[in-house]
Design a protein that fits this description.
- It is a single chain.
- Helices cover 3% and strands 34% of the residues.
- The chain is an all-beta fold and 401 residues long.
- The chain folds into two domains: 154 residues, no CATH class; 247 residues.
- The protein is elongated, with a radius of gyration of 21 Å.
Length: 401
């Protein structure tokens, strides 16, 4: 059973008014705002319910904190709030007696989701620790996108956007540190604005089955030895896909520092730009496919697994494994504006990726914006499939906003 609780910085009521509930469908007397959605808390007297799906601005599916049925009620006052105001509070509190009443997701058959809303910057750190999980019952942190989840997407469109959910500040170690297995982190924006060493967007720490998907990460502080993704501790089956990381320009900093993500690490269709190092492994255990590392001091480090293929660099460092592309000139949408989506005018990365839709280790078929691959004759290299949006002078097609 999927259980979802929301996070947003808005601590006030998102909606106040009369409502009725019949067969677990909440009907509001007036329309809710577009940013109300999955995981938000319904307060009906002393009762607490949670939105499990959005049907329209006045109709929502709801359930109890553990996914149970709601007793019908008619035309009474309710309010809607975010369930939590920080991610760390949600991670720590979801197992308490008012919510799941357990940290054993396997025995209780729960898949726990933390839905993050774009109310404002959340700058804290979260250690994901203490959950009993497996490959189908785990903790997923994500930004709602679809109309079944929320009225307006809370996720970026492949370029930094502070009207969407983002985290900016000086994390104590990383915005997310995964100590448990099977953690998923999807659709976030991280800005490391720290003068301290060894700060990260996401750090995997002896974690198996982790998924780091469709995030944007950048550095704006002065601290050295920082990274967007730092995979360490010997985790297996760590998948890092469809991420754009840029600007990690201080000493010894890297977009992707894949250290000892040990046996079974997979870096697929990522883009690294303007860092000291784009992507480095250091061990022969990271399979890198379809990655663009461009305009970094050193685009790729060494020691990638033999199955790596279709990687591209501006310099001469793309791993010389299977198909590879070195000394290339890639056209992005707008590098001056930190928009590292692939331009439709590009000729060196467009249609030159390997098709990973049936990959034996991690199969997927979308890009960082949620667009299905391929658009042209074949997959593009990097996090983004080149496409039009707006007028054709910008050469990129926008998804739903």
């Amino acid at each position: 059973m999927i259980i979802t609780y929301s996070v947003g910085t808005n601590s006030g009521a998102l909606y106040s008014g009369n409502a009725s509930s019949t067969s677990n469908v909440l009907t509001l007397a007036s329309a809710a705002s577009a940013n109300i959605g999955i995981g938000d808390q319904i307060r009906h007297g002393s009762n607490r319910y949670y939105i499990t799906g959005r049907n329209s601005p006045t109709s929502f599916n709801i359930a109890t904190a553990t996914g149970g049925s709601v007793t019908d009620f008619s035309s009474t006052a309710i309010t809607i709030y975010r369930a939590y105001n920080s991610i760390s509070a949600a991670e720590a509190g979801a197992s308490d007696a008012s919510h799941l009443n357990t940290s054993d997701l396997v025995a209780s058959n729960f898949l726990l989701q933390i839905a993050c809303y774009a109310d404002g910057n959340i700058s804290g750190s979260t250690d994901v620790d203490g959950w009993t999980v497996d490959a189908t019952r785990y903790v997923r942190f994500f930004t709602p996108v679809t109309l079944a989840e929320v009225g307006i997407t809370q996720r970026h469109s492949g370029v930094w956007d502070e009207t969407k959910f983002y985290m900016s500040g000086a994390p104590s170690a990383a915005f997310f540190t995964t100590n448990d297995n099977y953690v998923r982190i999807e659709g976030f924006q991280f800005n490391i604005a720290s003068s301290d060493q060894y700060r990260y967007g996401v750090r995997t720490n002896t974690s198996n089955g982790v998924r780091i998907l469709s995030n944007i990460m950048k550095q704006s502080g002065t601290g050295t030895n920082q990274s967007g993704v730092y995979a360490t501790g010997g985790g297996t089956d760590v998948v890092i896909a469809n991420n754009i990381i840029y600007g990690f320009s201080t000493a010894n900093s890297a977009a992707f520092a894949l250290g000892s993500a040990a046996s079974g690490g997979f870096a697929y269709n990522n883009t690294a730009y303007g860092c000291v190092i784009g992507m480095t492994s250091g061990y022969l255990n990271i399979v890198a496919k379809n990655n663009i590392c461009y305009n970094n001091t050193t685009d790729f480090g060494s020691d990638f697994a033999a199955a790596s293929t279709n990687n591209l660099s501006k310099d001469a460092t793309a791993p010389a494994l299977n198909t590879y592309y070195r000394n290339k000139t890639v056209a992005f949408v707008n590098t001056a504006g930190n928009d590292y989506r692939l331009s439709i005018k590009d000729t060196d990365a467009k249609d030159l990726g390997a098709n990973l839709s049936a990959d034996g280790s991690y199969a997927f078929s979308d890009d960082i914006t949620g667009t299905q691959r391929p658009i042209g004759s074949a997959w593009d290299i990097g996090a983004d499939e080149a496409k039009y949006f707006g007028n054709k002078s910008t050469y990129h097609r926008r998804r739903r906003s």
